[in-house]
Amino acid sequence: MHNLSIGIIGAGNMGLALASGLRAKVTPGRLAVSDPHPDKRQKIQEMGLTVHADNDALVTNADLLVLAVKPQGLRALCVAIAPAVQRRQPLIISVAAGVRTADIDRWLGGGVATVRAMPNTPALINAGVSVLWANDRVTQAQRDAATAVLAAVSEVFWVADEGLMDAATAVSGSGPAYLFLLIEALTAAGVRAGLPRELCAALAAGTAAGAARMAQNAPGDAALLRARVTSPGGTTEQAIKRLLDDGFMEMFARAIQAACDRSRTLGEQLGAT
Length: 273
Hints:
The chain has helices at about 15-20, 40-45, 55-60, 70-90, 100-105, 140-150, 165-175, 175-190, 195-215, 220-230, 235-245, 250-270; strands at about 5-10, 30-35, 50, 65, 90-95, 115-120, 130-135, 155-160. It is α/β, with parallel strands linked by helices. An 8-stranded mixed sheet has the order 3-2-1-4-5-6-7-8, with helices on both faces. Helix 7 packs across helix 12 and helix 8 crosses helix 9 (about 195-215). The longest helix is centred in the last third of the chain and has 24 residues, at about 250-270. The chain is elongated, with a radius of gyration of 21 Å.
Protein backbone atom coordinates (compact mmCIF):
# COMPACT_ATOMS: atom_id res chain seq x y z
CA MET A 1 0.00 0.00 0.00
CA HIS A 2 2.95 2.33 0.51
CA ASN A 3 3.33 2.80 -3.24
CA LEU A 4 -0.36 3.41 -3.98
CA SER A 5 -1.63 6.90 -4.60
CA ILE A 6 -4.78 7.24 -2.51
CA GLY A 7 -7.40 9.93 -2.89
CA ILE A 8 -10.24 10.60 -0.44
CA ILE A 9 -13.18 12.72 -1.55
CA GLY A 10 -14.89 14.20 1.48
CA ALA A 11 -13.35 15.46 4.72
CA GLY A 12 -16.25 14.69 7.02
CA ASN A 13 -15.85 12.38 10.02
CA MET A 14 -15.10 9.22 8.05
CA GLY A 15 -12.90 10.93 5.49
CA LEU A 16 -10.86 12.55 8.26
CA ALA A 17 -10.65 9.28 10.18
CA LEU A 18 -9.30 7.45 7.14
CA ALA A 19 -6.87 10.24 6.32
CA SER A 20 -5.58 10.25 9.88
CA GLY A 21 -5.22 6.47 10.00
CA LEU A 22 -3.53 6.23 6.61
CA ARG A 23 -1.03 9.07 6.77
CA ALA A 24 1.57 6.98 8.64
CA LYS A 25 1.09 4.02 6.29
CA VAL A 26 1.33 5.74 2.89
CA THR A 27 4.42 7.22 1.28
CA PRO A 28 4.43 11.01 1.83
CA GLY A 29 2.81 12.80 -1.09
CA ARG A 30 0.71 9.76 -2.09
CA LEU A 31 -2.30 10.56 0.09
CA ALA A 32 -4.58 13.44 -0.85
CA VAL A 33 -8.03 14.66 0.20
CA SER A 34 -10.53 16.91 -1.52
CA ASP A 35 -13.45 18.85 -0.06
CA PRO A 36 -15.39 21.91 -1.20
CA HIS A 37 -15.40 23.52 2.26
CA PRO A 38 -12.39 25.73 3.14
CA ASP A 39 -12.58 24.93 6.86
CA LYS A 40 -12.36 21.20 6.19
CA ARG A 41 -9.49 21.69 3.74
CA GLN A 42 -7.72 23.64 6.47
CA LYS A 43 -7.94 20.62 8.79
CA ILE A 44 -6.38 18.43 6.11
CA GLN A 45 -3.56 20.91 5.56
CA GLU A 46 -2.90 20.95 9.31
CA MET A 47 -2.44 17.17 9.10
CA GLY A 48 0.33 17.73 6.58
CA LEU A 49 -1.54 16.14 3.68
CA THR A 50 -2.13 17.24 0.10
CA VAL A 51 -5.52 18.90 -0.26
CA HIS A 52 -7.63 19.78 -3.30
CA ALA A 53 -10.74 21.85 -3.85
CA ASP A 54 -11.09 20.26 -7.30
CA ASN A 55 -12.12 16.59 -7.30
CA ASP A 56 -10.84 15.97 -10.83
CA ALA A 57 -7.34 17.00 -9.79
CA LEU A 58 -7.45 14.41 -7.03
CA VAL A 59 -8.90 11.63 -9.22
CA THR A 60 -6.30 12.18 -11.93
CA ASN A 61 -3.53 11.04 -9.58
CA ALA A 62 -5.34 8.30 -7.62
CA ASP A 63 -4.80 4.54 -7.88
CA LEU A 64 -7.41 4.08 -5.18
CA LEU A 65 -10.27 6.50 -4.62
CA VAL A 66 -12.40 6.61 -1.46
CA LEU A 67 -15.82 8.22 -1.83
CA ALA A 68 -16.52 9.48 1.68
CA VAL A 69 -19.63 11.55 1.08
CA LYS A 70 -23.21 11.19 2.29
CA PRO A 71 -25.42 8.78 0.33
CA GLN A 72 -27.67 11.58 -0.92
CA GLY A 73 -24.70 13.34 -2.51
CA LEU A 74 -23.04 10.32 -4.08
CA ARG A 75 -24.82 10.30 -7.45
CA ALA A 76 -24.00 13.94 -8.22
CA LEU A 77 -20.37 13.38 -7.22
CA CYS A 78 -20.01 10.24 -9.33
CA VAL A 79 -21.54 11.86 -12.41
CA ALA A 80 -19.20 14.85 -12.03
CA ILE A 81 -16.01 12.77 -11.71
CA ALA A 82 -17.01 10.03 -14.17
CA PRO A 83 -14.83 11.30 -17.07
CA ALA A 84 -11.75 11.48 -14.82
CA VAL A 85 -12.50 8.03 -13.35
CA GLN A 86 -12.86 6.51 -16.82
CA ARG A 87 -9.47 7.92 -17.82
CA ARG A 88 -7.65 6.87 -14.64
CA GLN A 89 -9.59 3.67 -13.72
CA PRO A 90 -8.81 3.73 -9.98
CA LEU A 91 -10.20 1.24 -7.51
CA ILE A 92 -13.32 2.83 -6.01
CA ILE A 93 -14.21 2.38 -2.34
CA SER A 94 -17.58 3.79 -1.33
CA VAL A 95 -18.46 4.23 2.34
CA ALA A 96 -21.97 5.57 1.61
CA ALA A 97 -24.61 3.57 3.48
CA GLY A 98 -27.18 1.75 1.37
CA VAL A 99 -25.91 2.73 -2.07
CA ARG A 100 -25.41 -0.31 -4.31
CA THR A 101 -22.27 -0.89 -6.35
CA ALA A 102 -24.25 -1.36 -9.57
CA ASP A 103 -25.59 2.18 -9.23
CA ILE A 104 -22.17 3.60 -8.38
CA ASP A 105 -20.73 1.83 -11.41
CA ARG A 106 -23.50 3.18 -13.64
CA TRP A 107 -23.03 6.75 -12.40
CA LEU A 108 -19.28 6.47 -13.01
CA GLY A 109 -19.75 5.35 -16.61
CA GLY A 110 -19.44 1.57 -16.18
CA GLY A 111 -16.64 -0.97 -15.99
CA VAL A 112 -15.26 0.30 -12.69
CA ALA A 113 -13.70 -1.88 -9.97
CA THR A 114 -15.78 -1.00 -6.93
CA VAL A 115 -15.74 -1.96 -3.26
CA ARG A 116 -18.67 -1.14 -1.01
CA ALA A 117 -17.58 -0.60 2.60
CA MET A 118 -19.51 -0.06 5.82
CA PRO A 119 -17.23 1.26 8.56
CA ASN A 120 -18.59 2.62 11.83
CA THR A 121 -17.85 5.68 13.93
CA PRO A 122 -15.34 4.11 16.35
CA ALA A 123 -13.03 4.34 13.32
CA LEU A 124 -12.57 7.91 14.54
CA ILE A 125 -10.42 6.47 17.36
CA ASN A 126 -8.98 3.60 15.26
CA ALA A 127 -11.35 1.15 16.96
CA GLY A 128 -13.98 0.55 14.29
CA VAL A 129 -15.21 -2.48 12.41
CA SER A 130 -15.79 -2.46 8.66
CA VAL A 131 -17.68 -4.84 6.39
CA LEU A 132 -16.65 -4.94 2.69
CA TRP A 133 -18.02 -6.37 -0.54
CA ALA A 134 -16.38 -6.19 -3.98
CA ASN A 135 -17.82 -6.40 -7.48
CA ASP A 136 -16.34 -8.90 -9.95
CA ARG A 137 -13.99 -6.33 -11.50
CA VAL A 138 -11.94 -6.08 -8.31
CA THR A 139 -8.69 -8.07 -8.44
CA GLN A 140 -7.15 -9.86 -5.47
CA ALA A 141 -4.48 -7.17 -5.27
CA GLN A 142 -7.19 -4.53 -5.13
CA ARG A 143 -9.07 -6.47 -2.43
CA ASP A 144 -5.86 -6.53 -0.43
CA ALA A 145 -5.47 -2.78 -0.93
CA ALA A 146 -9.06 -2.14 0.20
CA THR A 147 -8.46 -4.29 3.27
CA ALA A 148 -5.32 -2.32 4.10
CA VAL A 149 -7.11 1.03 3.75
CA LEU A 150 -9.95 0.12 6.11
CA ALA A 151 -7.60 -1.76 8.46
CA ALA A 152 -5.92 1.56 9.17
CA VAL A 153 -8.93 2.45 11.33
CA SER A 154 -10.85 -0.76 11.94
CA GLU A 155 -11.11 -4.52 11.91
CA VAL A 156 -12.11 -5.68 8.43
CA PHE A 157 -14.59 -8.37 7.44
CA TRP A 158 -15.61 -9.37 3.90
CA VAL A 159 -18.98 -10.76 2.82
CA ALA A 160 -19.60 -12.77 -0.33
CA ASP A 161 -23.09 -11.38 -1.04
CA GLU A 162 -23.79 -7.67 -1.45
CA GLY A 163 -27.29 -8.29 -0.11
CA LEU A 164 -25.73 -8.84 3.32
CA MET A 165 -24.43 -5.27 3.40
CA ASP A 166 -27.82 -3.94 4.52
CA ALA A 167 -27.76 -6.25 7.54
CA ALA A 168 -24.14 -5.31 8.25
CA THR A 169 -25.15 -1.66 8.13
CA ALA A 170 -27.92 -2.36 10.64
CA VAL A 171 -25.68 -4.32 13.02
CA SER A 172 -22.30 -2.59 12.95
CA GLY A 173 -22.79 0.61 10.99
CA SER A 174 -25.63 1.74 13.23
CA GLY A 175 -24.46 -0.37 16.16
CA PRO A 176 -22.56 2.30 18.11
CA ALA A 177 -25.79 4.27 18.48
CA TYR A 178 -27.47 1.27 20.11
CA LEU A 179 -24.65 0.99 22.64
CA PHE A 180 -24.74 4.72 23.31
CA LEU A 181 -28.46 4.36 23.94
CA LEU A 182 -27.77 1.49 26.36
CA ILE A 183 -25.22 3.64 28.20
CA GLU A 184 -27.76 6.46 28.26
CA ALA A 185 -30.43 4.10 29.64
CA LEU A 186 -28.08 2.66 32.29
CA THR A 187 -27.14 6.17 33.38
CA ALA A 188 -30.74 7.33 33.62
CA ALA A 189 -31.77 4.19 35.52
CA GLY A 190 -28.87 4.56 37.93
CA VAL A 191 -29.79 8.17 38.63
CA ARG A 192 -33.36 7.09 39.24
CA ALA A 193 -32.01 4.53 41.74
CA GLY A 194 -30.17 7.28 43.61
CA LEU A 195 -26.66 7.50 42.15
CA PRO A 196 -25.14 10.88 41.19
CA ARG A 197 -25.40 11.42 37.43
CA GLU A 198 -21.67 11.99 36.87
CA LEU A 199 -20.77 8.81 38.74
CA CYS A 200 -23.48 6.84 36.99
CA ALA A 201 -22.36 8.00 33.55
CA ALA A 202 -18.77 6.92 34.31
CA LEU A 203 -19.92 3.54 35.65
CA ALA A 204 -22.12 2.88 32.62
CA ALA A 205 -19.47 3.86 30.05
CA GLY A 206 -16.68 1.98 31.82
CA THR A 207 -18.83 -1.12 32.20
CA ALA A 208 -19.76 -1.07 28.51
CA ALA A 209 -16.11 -0.66 27.49
CA GLY A 210 -14.91 -3.51 29.72
CA ALA A 211 -17.70 -5.86 28.69
CA ALA A 212 -17.07 -5.12 25.00
CA ARG A 213 -13.39 -5.93 25.43
CA MET A 214 -14.27 -9.25 27.06
CA ALA A 215 -16.64 -10.06 24.19
CA GLN A 216 -13.92 -9.20 21.65
CA ASN A 217 -11.57 -11.62 23.36
CA ALA A 218 -14.19 -14.36 23.16
CA PRO A 219 -16.07 -13.78 19.88
CA GLY A 220 -19.30 -15.71 19.63
CA ASP A 221 -19.43 -16.40 23.36
CA ALA A 222 -21.53 -13.44 24.57
CA ALA A 223 -24.22 -15.76 25.93
CA LEU A 224 -21.60 -17.73 27.86
CA LEU A 225 -20.05 -14.54 29.25
CA ARG A 226 -23.50 -13.38 30.33
CA ALA A 227 -24.17 -16.69 32.04
CA ARG A 228 -20.91 -16.42 33.99
CA VAL A 229 -22.01 -13.18 35.64
CA THR A 230 -25.62 -14.25 36.16
CA SER A 231 -25.57 -16.07 39.48
CA PRO A 232 -28.70 -18.10 40.24
CA GLY A 233 -30.96 -16.14 42.55
CA GLY A 234 -28.78 -13.04 42.32
CA THR A 235 -29.33 -9.44 41.30
CA THR A 236 -28.16 -9.89 37.71
CA GLU A 237 -30.52 -12.79 37.18
CA GLN A 238 -33.46 -10.64 38.25
CA ALA A 239 -32.49 -7.84 35.88
CA ILE A 240 -31.94 -10.18 32.92
CA LYS A 241 -35.21 -11.99 33.61
CA ARG A 242 -37.10 -8.68 33.55
CA LEU A 243 -35.44 -7.64 30.28
CA LEU A 244 -36.22 -10.96 28.60
CA ASP A 245 -39.76 -11.10 29.98
CA ASP A 246 -40.35 -7.61 28.63
CA GLY A 247 -39.35 -8.73 25.15
CA PHE A 248 -35.84 -7.33 24.91
CA MET A 249 -34.66 -9.84 22.29
CA GLU A 250 -37.73 -9.37 20.10
CA MET A 251 -37.56 -5.60 20.42
CA PHE A 252 -33.93 -5.60 19.33
CA ALA A 253 -34.66 -7.92 16.42
CA ARG A 254 -37.35 -5.51 15.23
CA ALA A 255 -34.96 -2.57 15.57
CA ILE A 256 -32.26 -4.28 13.50
CA GLN A 257 -34.81 -5.23 10.86
CA ALA A 258 -36.03 -1.63 10.68
CA ALA A 259 -32.48 -0.39 10.09
CA CYS A 260 -31.87 -3.12 7.51
CA ASP A 261 -35.09 -2.22 5.68
CA ARG A 262 -34.15 1.46 5.70
CA SER A 263 -30.73 0.71 4.22
CA ARG A 264 -32.34 -1.33 1.44
CA THR A 265 -34.98 1.33 0.77
CA LEU A 266 -32.36 4.07 0.70
CA GLY A 267 -30.37 2.15 -1.90
CA GLU A 268 -33.48 1.62 -4.04
CA GLN A 269 -34.49 5.27 -3.83
CA LEU A 270 -31.05 6.64 -4.64
CA GLY A 271 -30.51 4.06 -7.37
CA ALA A 272 -33.73 5.13 -9.10
CA THR A 273 -32.33 8.61 -9.82
